[in-house]
Amino acid sequence: MHHPQLPLSARAAARMAMVGAIAILALTACSPDVDVTAAKDAANPACAPMMVALPDTIGDSTLRKTNSQATAAWGDPSLVILRCGVNVPGPTTDRCVTVNGVDWVIKEGDPVWTLTTYGREPATEILLDPDKISSATVLADLAAAAAKVPSVRNCVGQEDLQNLPKSQ
User: What is the pLDDT of residues 53-95, one digit of tens each?
Assistant: First the structure.
């Protein structure tokens, strides 16, 4: 790539720009954006405060770029997928846990578990394989971000139901 009309510094700058562009292409080729389908209500502005507060790592897994709004992924291959704007769960008999003030409804699949915030609108869904990453670690690491979506309801456990006033 010899350009006799360009002074030496301009040729060097052009070569450096080309090397930089190749390096950027090489980096993006190594870790492509994670393909995650956006949730139905992904454009809900209430997702934004949570999305900007997401941790850079969960356990040993690093946050990666995704190709859709209000989604996130950690690990390569992805160990944790997050989507904000999923359907808000109604009352359920599924297990509900509270971690650092955030309630999550747990649906145990085989192998993937789905954990959905309870009592927060819009709801956030997490997909993970508990054999590959601890659900306790994931929920603890995501609690501060998930709490950015205000809570309007809480889980009611069996012990809470037993303490309700008896009807007369």
Answer: 999 999 999 999 999 999 999 999 999 999 999 999 988 889 9
Rounded to whole angstroms, how far apart are CA atoms 56 and 144? 13
Domain assignment present for residue 88? The answer is yes
Report the number of distinct structural domains present in the chain.
Answer: 2
Report pLDDT digits (tens) over 136-148. Answer: 999 999 999 999 9
Residue 140 to residues 15, 16, 22, 59, 149, Cα–Cα distance (Å): 47, 44, 39, 10, 16
First-residue to last-residue Cα distance in the chain: 91
Q: Which domain holds residue 142?
A: 47-156
Residue 142's CB: how many other CB atoms inside 10 A?
27
Does residue 40 fall inside a structural domain? no
Q: What is residue 85's predicted lDDT score, i.e. its pLDDT?
A: 98
87-120: b or e for each residue (b if 16 or more CB lie within 10 Å)? ebbeeeeeebbebeebbbbbeeeeeebbbbbbbb
Is residue 41 situated within a structural domain?
A: no
